[in-house]
From TrEMBL:
One GO CC term on file: plasma membrane
Annotated signal sequence range: none
Location within or outside the cell: Cell membrane
Biological processes per GO annotation: proton transmembrane transport
InterPro entries named in the record: Cation/H_exchanger_TM, Na+/solute_symporter_sf
Protein name: Cation/H+ exchanger transmembrane domain-containing protein
Keyword field: Antiport, Cell membrane, Ion transport, Membrane, Transmembrane, Transmembrane helix, Transport
Transmembrane intervals: 12-29, 41-59, 98-119, 126-146, 158-180, 201-221, 233-262, 337-360, 366-390
Length: 406
């Protein structure tokens, strides 16, 4: 940019101002789309497309990399919430229902592999993408559930399935990454690479146990009341994320485990959700805006690749619905709703908690193009389908419009 532009618009040279302006635009557009009955977080998607690489080009990967820790913190809150909503006792006692959630996750990976292999992708690349697509996006499901104030049996089961799918994908990703890395002649053996991945998982779990133990000791030693514990918990979550970052351990597993421990081991009242709702809403908007800003719309121009991406989306929903056939606890309508609400896909970056739209560089050109198309559709299409799934379940509750009563 020349000096004249800087004189007229100096804020364009401030990355923080650009992100702030984009976030403000996301909030404004969110109010507009919400007034028309659509998910308000689509305001963040529209804002991201406007300021991102497909629009004005103000926000790109280089700019967002300067705020990686901020985005990691927002993702950490979402992953913690996913873990906090997993009910281990219900999963153990539910029998067929809990098993069907596991089967649905595995089938999503298998059908993805079948589609990609049939398309002609190398089996290694197809297997890697299939492992990642076992999981549904915790960010999209949690944000759409919060946006529509959804609660009920389908939402509860969906939240548990998101957690299960992410754990399975993370565990399967270890061998997949090890296998890809050993294709490099300079890499260590498969056993050594797999051992390295397992150490990262174990270390992430150890950090979660240590941080939760610290939280439990501090809050009990100080006899902190419920209203003060959320601040302490947030501090410990940041410690967890930071320790995982510097040790290169599994932040996703660690944060999910923190949420699991709070729900299943903590017996005291907790008001964490009520205290950080505003923070989560801002975090959702920030993550949606960032993801949309990095979407390259031209990735959807290739008809063949777009068709494959749409086929994978449809196939994943279909096999998810098939997995529920053996369960009699949910009605047909609830089963259909859960299949729709699990349409979203997670990215490699979210599994690693380093970039919510990250694409693993080890993929070949064709696989990278397919993954880019999938992630673009995921940002543009999956939130609406997830929201529709929650809606047809009959479990959405419109929030009271306080502004109209003032």
């Amino acid at each position: 940019m020349n000096d004249k532009i800087f004189e007229l618009m100096p804020w364009l040279f401030s990355p923080l101002a650009i992100v702030g302006a984009g976030l403000l635009l996301a909030q404004l557009l969110g109010q507009v789309v919400a007034a028309r009955g659509f998910p308000k977080l689509y305001g963040a998607v529209i804002a991201g497309l406007i300021v991102g690489v497909s629009g004005l080009g103000l926000v790109d990967t280089a700019l967002l990399s300067q705020f990686q820790e901020l985005f990691n913190a927002a993702t950490a809150l979402v992953l913690f919430e996913v873990g906090r909503k997993m009910d281990l006792q219900w999963l153990w006692r539910s029998g067929r229902e809990g098993a069907s959630l596991v089967v649905a996750s595995l089938l999503r990976g298998l059908v993805t592999f079948a589609c990609l292999a049939a398309f002609g992708l190398p089996h290694g690349d197809a297997a890697f993408i299939a492992v990642v697509l076992i999981a549904a996006s915790p960010i999209i499901f949690a944000s759409m559930a919060a946006d529509s104030n959804a609660s009920g049996v389908a939402t509860f089961a969906g939240a548990n399935m998101v957690g299960i799918g992410n754990v399975i994908a993370l565990l399967a990703l270890g061998p997949a990454l090890a296998w890809i890395k050993v294709q490099d002649a300079a890499a260590a053996s498969f056993a050594a690479e797999l051992g390295d991945q397992l150490i990262k998982l174990a270390l992430g779990a150890a950090i979660a146990l240590a941080c939760y133990g610290l939280y439990a000791v501090v809050t009990r030693a100080t006899r902190a009341p419920a209203r003060q514990r959320p601040g302490m918990l947030l501090a410990v979550l940041l410690m967890d994320l930071g320790l995982c970052s510097v040790t290169s351990s599994s932040a996703l597993l660690s944060l999910l485990l923190m949420g699991l421990l709070l729900r299943n081991a903590e017996k005291r009242d907790n008001v964490f959700q009520a205290q950080v709702k505003t923070g989560l809403d801002i975090g959702y908007a920030l993550l949606f805006m960032m993801s949309a800003a990095l979407v390259e719309v031209q990735q959807l121009v290739n008809v063949t690749t777009l068709g494959l991406a749409l086929l994978i989306f449809a196939a994943r929903m279909f096999v998810t619905r098939i997995a529920f056939l053996g369960s009699g606890a949910w009605s047909t309508q609830k089963k259909n709703a859960m299949a729709f609400s699990m349409c979203s896909l997670v990215s490699f970056g979210t599994l690693m908690v380093d970039n919510s739209l990250g694409i693993y560089s080890g993929l070949g050109p064709a696989a990278a193009q397919v993954m880019a198309s999938l992630l673009a559709l995921n940002v543009l299409l999956a939130p609406a389908v997830t929201w529709w799934g929650l809606k047809i379940a009959g479990e959405t509750h419109a929030e009271e419009d306080y502004d109209r009563t003032n």
